[in-house]
Amino acid sequence: MFLIIILRFSYVYCSSCHITGNAKSKVADCSLRGFLSVPRDLPDDIVKLDLRGNEIVNITAQAFIRYRTLQVLILNNNKISYLEDNTFAGLGTLDKLSMFGNNLDTNESYPLDIFSPLVSLTTLNISRNMKNTNRKTVFYPSFGELYNLTNLAVDLTGDSVFNMSGSNLTKLNTLLFDCCYLDRMTNKTFFDMPSSIVSITFTGHDGCTIFSVAEADFLRPFPSLRILRLKRVCLELESALKMLYPFRKQKNE
C-alpha cells in the first residue's frame, strides 16, 4: 500500500521572478531584480507583469509576444529610452500600461503606431519621462488606435502640441499631467483632443510651472469638463483667469 501526498503551492520562482496565483489570476512580480531586458521564460498565462525598478534601456520588437493574456503591464522606473517597432505585438487583451519614470522622449522614443496592438487598453501612463529642461516643441505619439482608452497620463513640457486628428478616442475622459513645465498654453495645445474629457489634473512631484497662458480658449476643446484640479501649480493670476475663462458660466470642481 502506497501513500501518495500531493503538495500544491500557489507560487513558484522563475527567472528570479515571483509567480503567484492560479489560472486566470497569475501574476509575475519581476520588480527590482536588475533585469536588463524583458524575461522570455515566464509562464505564458500570466495576467500581470510587474517589471518596475529594473535596468531596462531598450525594449525589442515582440518582447511580450509570449504573454498574450496580459492585462496589466508595469514598466515604471527603468531606464527605457526607446521602444522598437511592434514592441507590444500580441497584447490585445492588455488593459493597463504604465511606463512612468523612464527616459522616453515623446519626439523620438515612440515608433509610428507603437500602441496600435493595444486595442483593449483603458489606462496609459507615460508621465515623468520628459525633462524639465526640454525647450523644444513636443509632438505626442499617436493614440488613434486606442479606442477603449479612458485614462491618459503624460508630461507637458516646452511647447506641447497634441495631434489627434482622425483619432477615435471617444471614451477618453480623464487627463493627468503629472509633470508640467510649459512655455505657454495656446489654443493649439489641445486643439485635437476629444471633447469627451470630463477631468483634467495638472500636478507634478516637483511642482508644475506654466510661464504663460497666451490664449484664453486653450481649454475650450473640453465642453464636458467638470473637474479641473491644479496641484502644486505655479502660474500668474492673469494666466489662471484665462485658464478658467471658457467655464465662467459653469460650476466645476
UniProtKB/TrEMBL annotation:
Name of the protein described by the UniProt record: Uncharacterized protein
PANTHER family, per database record: PROTEIN TOLL-RELATED, TOLL-LIKE RECEPTOR
Signal peptide feature range: 1-16
UniProt membrane topology term: Single-pass membrane protein
Cell compartments where the protein resides: Membrane
Superkingdom per UniProt: Eukaryota
Chief place where the protein resides: membrane
One cellular component term from this protein's GO annotations in UniProt: plasma membrane
MF terms in GO: signaling receptor activity
The entry's keywords: Membrane, Signal, Transmembrane, Transmembrane helix
GO BP field: signal transduction
